[in-house]
Design a protein that fits this description.
The protein has 347 residues and is mostly beta strands. A hairpin with a 4-residue loop joins β9 and β10. The chain contains no helices and 29 strands. The chain is globular and about 50 Å long.
Length: 347
């Protein structure tokens, strides 16, 4: 395990760049305090041959990362506050997602409909789910509100070989219930329940496969019905996404970050920078992290500034975990094939 303390040669803290924030596009909806930016950053390298795609943490001293790679003995990694390690246990599991509610309750969603559970001591398979007779489901993400109320989501392949048959399964009161998803298309990548209006919003990736354009679709789910509320093709700068910040769903619609107010999109921030890469994470409306193609930017309710720049081109952030004084970002460098954990700590 290699830990690197970042210096100014590798990473620039709070660079004052020509970022512009259109004040007319910012609407104050909360009385949050501006998020701080005085992080001290370190970087850990996870020693995995295959890229790490999913990350979850219950606290700054209990984090998990998983890979779908071919080494079934090194697909689950744990952080104890000091080091990342893997237990080396061979498991018939290809992890695609991870989520939990505490340090002794976590779930992994894999391929072939498999679901594994961590009880604080060890991982064990707890379910193999099917839908419409299909057992080739890949569970790409998990999200929920409590240990006994969460959603696991993904897709299986259609007759054209594209993974566009959506799957959503709800775990509630120890019962797995599959949603009717015939009216939506694509891999269900994210699903959140919005506190403000009580609606569920979900994002799917629709794979073209000669039948469609590769695109992102955002749906509202309410009383058993789906309504498509936004779609975008996979053209850089136009992509869409959703994020869950302070119990509210935030919508990334190209350069605009919005909320749903009275059934309509209301822009709260417009990002006037072509490097915006359409992903955000945050603690509040005045404490939002924005992915750029060249680094990570922070918005504090009034302006945007870089927290750090990437050291390599073709770098991506696949996930984040935010706590009161700690921020973790799962960073993947395509050029070096390294999976890195950027850990920012407020002094």
């Amino acid at each position: 395990m290699k830990r690197i303390i970042l210096n100014t040669a590798f990473i620039t803290i709070i660079i004052y760049t020509a970022f512009s924030c259109n004040k007319d596009s910012v609407i104050s909806t909360e009385e949050d305090q501006p998020g701080r930016r005085d992080y001290v950053w370190t970087v850990d390298t996870i020693n995995s041959y295959d890229p790490i795609y999913r990350f979850w943490a219950s606290s700054p001293t209990d984090a998990w990362a998983v890979t779908t790679g071919g080494n079934l003995s090194e697909s689950i990694f744990h952080f104890d506050g000091n080091h990342w390690s893997t237990d080396g246990v061979f498991r018939l599991l290809s992890p695609h997602s991870i989520w939990g509610s505490s340090n002794n309750n976590a779930y992994i969603g894999g391929s072939a409909g498999k679901i594994w559970h961590f009880d604080g001591n060890s991982w064990s398979e707890v379910a193999t789910l099917t839908k419409d007779g299909h057992d080739d489901i890949v569970f790409d993400n998990i999200w929920g509100g409590s240990y006994n109320d969460f959603y696991i989501m993904g897709a299986y392949h259609n007759d054209n070989g594209a993974p566009n048959n959506s799957v959503i399964t709800h775990f509630n009161d120890n019962i797995w219930t599959s949603f009717d998803t015939d009216n939506i298309i694509g891999i269900v990548e994210r699903l959140y329940k919005n506190k403000t209006d009580g609606k569920i919003y979900l994002r799917t990736n629709r794979i073209g496969g000669g039948e469609y354009f590769d695109s992102t679709l955002i749906y509202k789910y309410d009383q058993g019905k789906y309504s498509e509320i936004y779609s975008s093709v996979w053209t850089r700068g136009l992509q869409a996404d959703i994020s869950f910040i302070n119990n509210e769903v935030y919508f990334v619609l190209g350069s605009k970050i919005s909320k749903r107010i009275n059934g309509q999109f209301k822009t709260i921030l417009e990002v006037n920078n072509p490097n915006f890469n359409q992903k955000i994470w945050g603690r509040s409306s005045k404490d939002i992290f924005l992915l750029m193609i060249d680094g990570l930017v922070h918005y504090n309710g009034s302006d945007m500034k870089y927290l750090f720049h990437f050291n390599k081109s073709s770098t991506e952030i696949f996930g984040a975990a935010l706590f009161e004084n700690d921020a973790f970002f799962l960073v993947s460098e395509a050029e070096t094939n390294l999976s890195l954990i950027y850990h920012g700590k407020l002094e």
